[in-house]
C-alpha cells in the first residue's frame, strides 16, 4: 500500500512539491465534479512521465476511471493513436464508415465518436486522462484535443498533457489556446540542490557528502540522469556508508558519464557482439518491440535469441512488459538509436518497413520506417508511402500530405509512378488548405505530365484556385479541360460539377445556362455530378427570373440525386443549398427536415467539407426565427470548425449571420468588421444573398445615400434584384424605405413593382405576399397593406418592422383613434424587437413612442437579473434541465435540434450565471430547487 499521496515528503515528490500540489488540487476538484487541464512540459528526463504515472496511481486509488496513452516517434503517422490507445478504441470499435475513399474526410466524424465514448464514461464519474510525449502526436490528435478539451469542460475530467519542450508550432499553438481557456501550465525545471541531496540519500541509503554531491552535479538536475548516475555509483561499490553518510571511496574521484549517450554506450560496451547487435536492431523498431520482429529482421528463429535477450535485459536498458520488451526510458532508446551509423540505420529502417508491408494490413507502420530514413527510388518504400497516404487521407489529410510530398521527393521524374504521386500530393495539400503549395505543385506537374495525364492535374489546379478565391482563373482551367473530346467520363463529370461550383462562387450564373440546360435535357448522357451542378445553377436562374417554385423543384431534385453519395465529398452540399432556399422562403419545417437529413449524411460519410456548412445553415435558421443567441453560437462553432480544418466553402454564410446578429444587437463596429470579412471570403465560397445586411451596415454608418450606392452595386439590374428579393424578402420593405429616405422614389417604385410581380407569380409563398404588402405599404402609405404584413409575416423581425412602419404612418394622423392605434402598433413592434433581442431597433421604437407622449420601460427581458436562476433564458433553462438529468451534450442537442456546440455555448452561460463549474453542481442546484418548490 502506497503512502499518503498528499505527503509531499515522499521520495516520489522530491523537488516537485509545487507541481504535485497542482495535481492533487485538480484531482480533488474533479472528485467534486469539476474538470481541469494540466499542460506538463520540460526537457527529456525531467520527470514528466513520472508525474503522470504518480497521478494515475493516486487517481485510481480515489476511484477515478483512468486512461493513459502517449505518442510515439514511429507512430506519428497513425491518426489519433495516442487517444485511441488511451481509450482502448480503434477504427473497428468506433464503427469506421465503410466505402469512404480518398475523397472522404472523417476528421470530424472521428472526433465526434471519441467525444461520445468519453461522454458515456464521464456520466459515470470522474476520470483522469493522461497523454505523454505529445511532441510526436499526429495532426489529427492535436485537432481532436483542441475540440475535446473545450467540449468536455463541464465534465469531471482531468487532462494531463505532457510534452518535451521544443519548437513544434502546431503543439505550441495548442498549448497557447488551452492556456488562454484556463489550462494550468506545469513547467518542470531542473531539481534544486536540496532535492538532489534528498534523492541521493534515497538511492544511496545515507546522507551524501560533498564529494558525492559534486559528482551528482554533472546530471544537471535531471532526475533520470541523476538516479542512473547514483545507481551506477552504488552498484559499482564506489560509495560506502558510514555513520549514516555516503562518501566516495575511490581516489581520485570516479569520473561519471556526463550524458545519457555515454551512459548507454557504457552499458552497450559490456554486451557481447550478438546481444549488442540485437539491441541496436530492436531500437530501430521503436521504443517498444516484439522479440519475433527482431528475430525476423535478424533472419533467425526467435528461440535462438533467448540468451541474447536475457543479456540485454540484464543491462536494465530494456524491461519486459506483458507482451513486448521496451526501453526503460526514451533517452536510453534515443541514445542506442543515435549510436547506430546512419547508413546502417537507414538500411535497417528499410528492412523493417518492408517486413511490415509484406505482412499486409495497414501500411502506416511501414510508412513510418520509410519516412524515418528513406532512400530515393526504392520501389517498395515508395509503394508503401503511396498506400499509407491513401489510407490516412480521410482521417488525417495533413499526414497524408506529408507522406505524399515525401514520396514525391524520393521519386525521379522518369518514374512511372511520378504522376499519380503528384496528383495524390495535390489532393492532400488541397484538403489541408495548403492551397498555394498545392497550386505550385500542380503547375510543376503539368510541365512534366503527358497529354493524357494533364487534364487530371488541371482539374486539381482549378480546385485549388477556386478555394483560394480565384474563380475566374479556375473557370479558365476547367473550360480548357472540358474542351477535350477524349476526356474520361468520370473526370468530365467531376470537372463539370467543379465548373458549376465556380460559376456560383463567381456569381456568374448566366454564363452556364446553356450547358446546364443541355445537361438537364439529356441527363442520361451525363454523370450525377454534372447533373447536380446543372440543376443548382438552373435553380439560381429560376429565382433570378422570379420562378420560385421552379427553383425549389430543381434544387430538391439536385439534393435527391446527391443524397445517394454519388458525388463524393460534395454530396451534402446540395442538401444544404436546399435547406438555405427553404429558409429564404420561410418554409421552416421542411428546412429543418432537410437539415436533419444533411446532418445524418455528414455523420455517416464524414464530409468535413460540409461539417462547418451544416452549422452555418443552422445559424441561419436560428437567425430568421429570431433566436439570435443560438444563431451566433452556431455560426461561431462553424467558424471554429472551418478554421481548424481549412474548409471554408460555406464560411460567408456564417460570417453574414454574425454580421446580422451584431447589427440587430446594435454593435455596428462588429457588424462592419463582419461585412468586411464577408466580402473577403465571398469570392471563395457559396454565393449567398447579402444585400440587406451589407446595405444596412452601410446605412448605419453612412446614411441612406451610402446604402443605395451599395445596393446598386449588389443589384445592378432587375434580374439581380429579383434574385435578392426572393432570397431575402426583408430587403423589399427595407430597400423601399431607404430609397425614399435617399430621395430616389424611382428606385423605390422599381423595388415595389418587382416584389409585387414576384408575389403575384408565386401565390403559394405567403412570405413573398407579405413582403410585397410591406414594401407597397411604405411606398403608398397604405395602412391596410402594412397591417397585413404585421399580422401575417412568418419572420418575427419582419412582423415587428411592419408594425413599426404602421405605427409611424398612423402616428402622423390627427385623429385620436389613429393616435392610440399608432401607440398599440409601436408597442407591438417594441415587444417583437425585444423578444428577439434587437435593442437597436427597440431603442428607435421607444424614441418614436416618446414622440407620441408615451414612455415605455425596458421589456421584462431587459430587466432579467445578471446572475442566478432567474437570469437564465428559456433555452438555457431547457439545456440545464436536460443536462441535470444526466444527458450528454449530444443527447441534449438531439432533443432540442441544436448542435452540440450550441449546447456547450448555453451550458457555459448557465455555469457563468449560476457561478458553478460542473454538471454535478448543476444537478445539485436543480435538485435543491425542485425539493424546495
From TrEMBL:
<dbReference type="GO" id="GO:0005524">
    <property type="term" value="F:ATP binding"/>
</dbReference>
<dbReference type="InterPro" id="IPR027417">
    <property type="entry name" value="P-loop_NTPase"/>
</dbReference>
<keyword id="KW-0547">Nucleotide-binding</keyword>
<dbReference type="GO" id="GO:0004016">
    <property type="term" value="F:adenylate cyclase activity"/>
</dbReference>
<keyword id="KW-0067">ATP-binding</keyword>
<feature type="domain" description="HTH luxR-type">
    <location>
        <begin position="865"/>
        <end position="930"/>
    </location>
</feature>
<protein>
    <submittedName>
        <fullName>AAA ATPase-like protein</fullName>
    </submittedName>
</protein>
<dbReference type="InterPro" id="IPR000792">
    <property type="entry name" value="Tscrpt_reg_LuxR_C"/>
</dbReference>
<dbReference type="InterPro" id="IPR011990">
    <property type="entry name" value="TPR-like_helical_dom_sf"/>
</dbReference>
<dbReference type="GO" id="GO:0006355">
    <property type="term" value="P:regulation of DNA-templated transcription"/>
</dbReference>
<dbReference type="Pfam" id="PF00196">
    <property type="entry name" value="GerE"/>
</dbReference>
<dbReference type="GO" id="GO:0003677">
    <property type="term" value="F:DNA binding"/>
</dbReference>
<dbReference type="Pfam" id="PF13191">
    <property type="entry name" value="AAA_16"/>
</dbReference>
<dbReference type="InterPro" id="IPR036388">
    <property type="entry name" value="WH-like_DNA-bd_sf"/>
</dbReference>
<dbReference type="InterPro" id="IPR016032">
    <property type="entry name" value="Sig_transdc_resp-reg_C-effctor"/>
</dbReference>
<dbReference type="InterPro" id="IPR041664">
    <property type="entry name" value="AAA_16"/>
</dbReference>
<dbReference type="GO" id="GO:0005737">
    <property type="term" value="C:cytoplasm"/>
</dbReference>
